[in-house]
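[step 3/7] inverse_fold.run input=structure_tokens len=162
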């Protein structure tokens, strides 16, 4: 996908007009229109500002690399930040995280096939409770978290007491 098309897509995903994006990035809206139509190329500074504005890498904007496309389509910035932190972990820790994620994905797929309603998702948990849950997890020894994993996967683990 071209730079022009990526800018249009990202802008529309965030419900911005060309004028709004141009103002945020610091260019005249006619320049933004030319960038989006592929008539002209933005400067390196403008590309950098666009990337920062949309939370994507400059590589994603300029290259047609499918690996970098993931970043643009991941709207949950907290999840993106967590994945970035995971990428810095040891291979053993990454394998553990992948195993946990795969287990939850499979569980969700099976529940969907069976028509079973999943337990409360984190999106349904009020922000204050999510913050409390996150703090609780960071206070727990890693071993305790792994021991509670099977309960969490089965939906039997309750939120920690406040």
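[step 3/7] decode complete -> sequence:
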């Amino acid at each position: 996908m071209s730079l022009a098309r990526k800018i249009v897509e990202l802008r529309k995903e965030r419900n911005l007009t060309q004028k709004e994006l141009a103002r945020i990035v610091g260019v005249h809206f006619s320049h933004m229109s030319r960038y989006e139509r592929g008539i002209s190329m933005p400067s390196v500074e403008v590309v950098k500002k666009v990337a920062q504005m949309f939370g994507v890498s400059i590589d994603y904007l300029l290259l047609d690399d499918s690996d970098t496309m993931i970043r643009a389509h991941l709207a949950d910035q907290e999840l993106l930040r967590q994945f970035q932190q995971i990428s810095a972990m040891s291979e053993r820790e990454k394998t553990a995280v992948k195993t946990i994620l795969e287990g939850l994905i499979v569980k969700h797929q099976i529940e969907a096939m069976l028509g079973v309603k999943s337990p409360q998702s984190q999106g349904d948990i009020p922000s204050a409770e999510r913050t409390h849950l996150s703090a609780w997890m960071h206070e727990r020894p890693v071993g305790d978290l792994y021991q509670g994993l099977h309960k969490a996967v089965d939906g039997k683990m309750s939120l920690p007491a406040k």
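[step 4/7] annotate
Residues 128 and 134 are 10 Å apart (CA to CA).
Residues 3-73 form a domain with the 434 Repressor (Amino-terminal Domain) fold (CATH 1.10.260.40).
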